[in-house]
Amino acid sequence: MLKTPLCDLLGIEKPVFQGGMAWIADASLASAVSEAGGLGIIAAMNADANWLRDQIHELRAKTDKPFGVNVMLMSPFADEVAQVVIDERVPVVVTGAGNPAKYMKAWNEAGIKVV
Ligand SMILES: Cc1cc2nc3c(=O)[nH]c(=O)nc-3n(C[C@H](O)[C@H](O)[C@H](O)COP(=O)(O)O)c2cc1C
Question: How many angstroms separate the alpha carbon of residue 83 from the centre of ligand 1?
């Protein structure tokens, strides 16, 4: 099986990085991708902290492998979602739709890999 530096960086077996897709990339899809050896991503889209926390817990009930959360920076809940990924020790964050600068220090200090 092909192995690349991305595998070592993210702790995954196969160099497959699932896209964050609003309404599609939920815990069900992301857990399946991670469990299969890629990096599954939960898209936080415009959802609030409670929704994301539930999704993370649902994913963790299905796999103990690495996964990520896509933080959609235009979301009205971006601040609380940015804190949830820290509180839940999410290993990888993928940002979209904006500049993540205001969150980078906290995410770096939490050891989150940011894409
Ligand atoms: C249906 C759909 C929904 C998407 N929703 C998001 C999103 O919520 N956040 C985001 O950052 N990117 C979103 N994207 C972009 C994808 O994550 C990805 O960057 C894009 O599809 C390019 O991937 P590719 O290079 O593998 O083709 C979405 C893409 C699709 C097709």
Answer: 22
